[in-house]
């Protein structure tokens, strides 16, 4: 009787260890799969860019001059203005969206009634799922015709600054307009992740702050925001990653240029890598495709570095 009891009690332990090993193996496989996929993308881009990197210099120059209208004669002269435009537009979008998104997230998590919070959360999640081409159509057909007055005001009263130097282009197919559209696109992503992080703040920390006489805002400043700081940074990097790689919305709104310019209200100043690839790809020959893929490789590296830097910042905050 005793031996039967021991054997019966030993079986679940054995089954538990087996299940643990299986789960551990699956988890390891999933983690390795991510690394394999990342490496595969990098290898694909690098191999496809090789014809440009090792090909005939005269043919490369002719292709790049055709893409840039004679403004660039080698690859780096061609890609660096695109890198500048990509970073400029994405950074502006993040600056516009960040504080609004955090404010909305705090309102949903700590100020709105449960019913209103549920409705707003559903709306935010719906906005995050809207395809980028829809935002592009909205920006091109609605925002561009109606935002000129705003940019004209900026040019009139803030034109003494370089970035708002006038006259504002009409129609305003400019970096400023594209930045607003991208800000609207990444706003739901930052808001949704930040909201979930803020809602996970331990109740004991919030109640302790209130018990010590803190107002609700002071409680949020002392307990909620420090707790969610790392998560908000991660959410911002997710939004920035989408802005860096956005194609259709930029392509449908921005009047492209190849300049290193901070003039946000003037057209034909900058272009992004992703939009340039989409614009040039249909008519590109084999060497042209290689050139565009090489610019995509540069964008891949930029995105990787941005996320790596964000991870380092987050780890430092956690420490």
Automatic annotation (TrEMBL):
Coiled coil: none annotated. The keyword Transport applies. It is found in: Cell membrane. Pfam families: BPD_transp_1. Its main location: membrane. It is a multi-pass membrane protein. GO terms for cellular component: plasma membrane. The keyword Transport applies. Residues 83-310 form the ABC transmembrane type-1 domain. InterPro entries: MetI-like, MetI-like_sf, Phosphate_PstC, Phosphate_Transport_Permease. GO terms for biological process: phosphate ion transport. The chain crosses the membrane at residues 26-47, 82-108, 129-154, 174-193, 243-262, 289-310. PANTHER family: PHOSPHATE TRANSPORT SYSTEM PERMEASE PROTEIN PST (PTHR30425), PHOSPHATE TRANSPORT SYSTEM PERMEASE PROTEIN PSTC (PTHR30425:SF1). Part of the binding-protein-dependent transport system for phosphate; probably responsible for the translocation of the substrate across the membrane. This is Phosphate transport system permease protein. It comes from Bifidobacterium catulorum. The lineage of its organism: Bacteria, Bacillati, Actinomycetota, Actinomycetes, Bifidobacteriales.
């Amino acid at each position: 009787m005793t031996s039967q009891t021991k054997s019966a009690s030993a079986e679940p332990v054995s089954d538990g260890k087996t299940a643990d090993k299986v789960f551990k193996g699956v988890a390891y496989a999933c983690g390795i799969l991510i690394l394999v996929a990342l490496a595969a993308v990098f290898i694909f881009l690098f191999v496809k860019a090789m014809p440009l990197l090792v090909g005939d210099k005269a043919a490369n120059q002719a292709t790049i001059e055709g893409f840039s209208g004679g403004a660039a004669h080698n690859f780096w002269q061609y890609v660096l203005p695109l890198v500048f435009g990509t970073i400029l537009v994405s950074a502006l979008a993040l600056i516009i969206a960040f504080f609004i998104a955090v404010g909305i997230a705090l309102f949903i998590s700590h100020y709105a009634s449960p019913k209103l919070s549920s409705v707003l959360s559903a709306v935010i999640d719906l906005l995050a799922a809207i395809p980028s081409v829809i935002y592009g159509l909205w920006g091109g057909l609605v925002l561009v015709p109606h935002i000129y007055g705003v940019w004209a005001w900026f040019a009139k009263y803030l034109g003494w600054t370089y970035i708002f130097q006038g006259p504002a282009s009409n129609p305003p197919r400019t970096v400023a307009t594209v930045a607003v559209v991208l800000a609207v696109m990444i706003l739901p992503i930052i808001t949704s992740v930040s909201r979930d992080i803020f809602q996970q703040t331990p109740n004991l920390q919030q109640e302790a702050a209130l018990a010590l006489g803190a107002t609700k805002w002071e409680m949020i400043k002392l307990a909620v925001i420090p707790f969610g700081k790392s998560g908000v940074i991660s959410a911002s990097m997710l939004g920035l990653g989408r802005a860096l790689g956005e194609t259709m919305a930029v392509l449908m709104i921005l009047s492209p240029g190849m300049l290193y310019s901070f003039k946000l209200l003037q057209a034909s100043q900058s272009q992004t890598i992703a939009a340039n690839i989409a614009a040039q790809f249909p008519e590109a020959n084999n060497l042209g495709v290689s050139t565009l893929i090489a610019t995509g490789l540069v964008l891949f590296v930029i995105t990787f570095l941005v996320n790596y830097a964000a991870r380092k910042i987050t780890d430092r905050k956690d420490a």
